[in-house]
Amino acid sequence: MKTNVLMVCLGNICRSPLAEGLLASKVNPENIKVDSAGTSGYHIDHSPDKRSVAIANLHELDISEQRGRQFVAEDFDRFDYIYVMDNSNYENVIKLARTEEDQRKVNLILNKIFPKENVDVPDPYYGGDQGFKNVYDMLDEATSIIAKEIS
Ligand code: 4NP
Question: Which UniProt keywords apply (predicted)?
Answer without folding.
Answer: Hydrolase, Protein phosphatase
